[in-house]
Amino acid sequence: MINPIRAWRTQKQIKHLLGKSGKIITWTTIYVTTPDFKKQAPYPVVLVEYIDGERAYGPLVNYGDCDLSIGKEVFGVLRIVRKGNSDEIIEYGIKFKPKA
Amino acid sequence: MRTKVIGYYNSKFGELWNKSLADLIDEAIAGVLQSVRLARADIDAVFFGNMLGGILENSLFNSALIAQIMETTVPVYRLEAACASGGLAFQTATNYLKSNKNKTVLVLGAEKMTDVSVERATEALTAASAAEEQIAGLTFPGLYAMMAQVYLHQYRYDEEHLAYISVKNHYHGSLNEKAQFRKTITVDKVLASPYVAYPLKILSSSAISDGAAALILTNDPVRVKSSRSAVDVLSSEVATDCLAIKNRDSLTELYATQVAAEKAFCEAKIKRNRIDVAEVHDCFSIAEILAMEDIGFWKRGEGGKKAKEMSTQLGTNQRLVVNTSGGLKAAGHPVGATGVKQIGELFLQLTKQAKSRLVKNAHFALAHNVGGAGGMAVVSILAV
């Protein structure tokens, strides 16, 4: 079950990353997942470093194969990260989109 | 008196559907006591490594379970450090013996992982990662895959270089009757296996396993004198690091390993080139390469080349042989048991009980056990 308090707390921490640009410093594509992410597999996850040195993880969305590379510029967007049962909350979080 | 390992037993590692966690604990305790001809009442304390009992079995208070099995009232300490739980149990036991004279203790590691789906086991293992890594959909293999990507990119290696680690460890596993996987594999087979987390494949990864392992340690001269075989513990050191890999300065080094290794060699007062046989933490093939560099056996960035040379395989006449048990990759990785099994394998090597996988004339041995994606490392050095 998605804990609404935990989701609320997490979202407060990530809002300053929305729209902020950075570079992929490493990435992977997850094939064997936890139950929560099974429907999304396979999906790429990137580790991004911003110009101020801050780093953040997130799935990469709206990408082409050439975007999955170390050094690629990306920016943070708000997306659904997890959906539970119909009576649970929908959890939003940060994902990354490649810069054109 | 210096602490000595005087006995070892491990269950078969693998998918042991007919055995519960309690059954595995029971088997390991009975097996190790029988091997040293001691009674349960001869044990002064127990150190138990386990990670997932509370998550997968709803069985967290296994200290009392062990007391029940042993019909004892002695202290039973449970140590949890993800995949380093067994190593930390051993390290804690050695510290206990430093401050308690003439004692004999049991070090036990056990894990039951195969009663649940792969997805559920994967989720349970993510308990060893940071919350933000879990929310991003990263798995434990995913974190090592991220480290592998940087390593391959930085030093211009490819997946083939990683594959040789698995080939070597499966060869060693084929010689270990208690290993989960006893078949040799080829580089082509590794490369043809499906991805778990790019660039790591199924055959680059340790399995989900059940198993238990147990050691008897003592600093009692009477017990040592009556034992059939004994190995000196020269050092056992632990170091920690950030939980989230994003907070680390380098993604191609495990700083905890470097610190623990440096402390262990300093305490043991020997140089790295004296080690004849080692068990290093190869939860994924990249992990063994990073470990060999972080411990100081290989130079930084040389790992891919060295892995391809298969220079640490038994029979290659090299000075250092690595992961004769098959490592986590082929022997299996019941996480709480692994660190104990590593010490046990070195005990078998140094006391010439390792049968067809024996490294001849081995005098010094090193075990390296990692928790999570490098948040903890335990390095221990043994000698005869």
UniProtKB/TrEMBL annotation, chain A:
Residues 18-74 form the ChsH2 C-terminal OB-fold domain. Pfam families: OB_ChsH2_C. InterPro entries: ChsH2_C, NA-bd_OB-fold. This is ChsH2 C-terminal OB-fold domain-containing protein. It comes from Candidatus Roizmanbacteria bacterium RIFCSPLOWO2_01_FULL_41_22.
Automatic annotation (TrEMBL), chain B:
CDD domains: SCP-x_thiolase. GO terms for molecular function: acyltransferase activity, transferring groups other than amino-acyl groups. It holds the Pfam family Thiolase_C_1. Residues 13-219 form the Thiolase N-terminal domain. Signal peptide: none annotated. Coiled coil: none annotated. Residues 240-383 form the Thiolase C-terminal domain. NCBIfam families: PRK06064.1. PANTHER family: ACETYL-COA C-ACETYLTRANSFERASE, NON-SPECIFIC LIPID-TRANSFER PROTEIN-LIKE 2. This is Acetyl-CoA acetyltransferase. It comes from Candidatus Roizmanbacteria bacterium RIFCSPHIGHO2_12_FULL_41_11.
